[in-house]
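Progress note, project year one: complex with acetyl coenzyme *A.
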Amino acid sequence: MSTTTNTAPAELPKWKTVEVTFEDGIAWVTLNRPTKRNAMSPTLNREMMDVLNVLEFDDRAKVLVLTGAGGAFSAGMDLKEYFRETENFEWIRKLRNHSASQDWMWRRLRKYPKSTIAMVNGWCFGGAFTPLVGCDLAVAAEDATFGVSEVNWGIIPGGNVCKAIEETMGYREALYYIMTGDTFTGKQAEAMGLVNYAVPADQLRSRVIEIAKKLLALNPVTVYNAKVMYKFTRNMDWETASEFSGAKSAQNAMMDKEKGRLKGLEQFLDEKSFRPGLGAYRRDD
Ligand code: ACO
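Model obtained:
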């Protein structure tokens, strides 16, 4: 398995539990265990880490869309492979399985260099909330079913599910669903802020493509630094956030070989050919 090389392989590795296809700058990353409702097994988690490592350097992948095969986004952690079969594992093997899931679901995804969109096409339970929120943006089918179902079978929402919920849902809603295990729909998820939009299932893909195209038109270095700055300043006090954002701005200018800022100023102030308030500067000049 390739993992941390800094070039894209000529051909994608053959993953057993994840399918990757490319289309116009979008990498469609599909959790692919439909007969198990895309429950996340240790193999799937290791393969997802590999997928993210490979796509990082693949120019066909400018925006990543994470979705699920069949009628499910993901039914959460694989209860057989993660819980029943590991009951008697020694602690170090349990830890390794745990980090396999955490490494891709939020450590890697939250600051992934490319923009990420979760496309929730159906069931989304428990552990699946972590990669859902790990993605930058999320769009759901109106009739998708969400549930923080851990309490239904006697465990608490671990694996940073609570943290993911805390970042996106309101206090009362979060506690209600964490404590009751009730399900809610894509439409309710939109109203709560867990996803950006909920749309009829037959419009899900086109809505995601529309958002991906907006992102594709923008300077990728700036989009990356802007999202990282937002995600990390949330937990900082004002002084620290101010210093961090100053440093991030300088880093952005240094990383941006395209010199977007200068192009934008030139097109607005000299050429008067675009208005920054109303759209992106032309990147092909
Ligand atoms: N882990 C392991 N296997 C699963 C999981 C899961 N999370 N979800 C579904 N499967 C398997 C079933 O065991 C079944 O396998 P089998 O065909 O070998 O018997 C197959 O997927 C289909 O499942 P059904 O229950 O028959 O599918 P249905 O469409 O009727 O229901 C639903 C789908 C509602 C998602 C149901 O499967 C379910 O409740 N799954 C568990 C959801 C959940 O609570 N996940 C855990 C959250 S907590 C956590 O992530 C730590």
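The chain has two domains: 18-216, 220-278.
Strands lie at 18-23, 26-31, 63-68, 72-74, 115-120, 123-125, 137-141, 145-147, 183-185, 197-199.
No further modelling is planned for this target in the current period.
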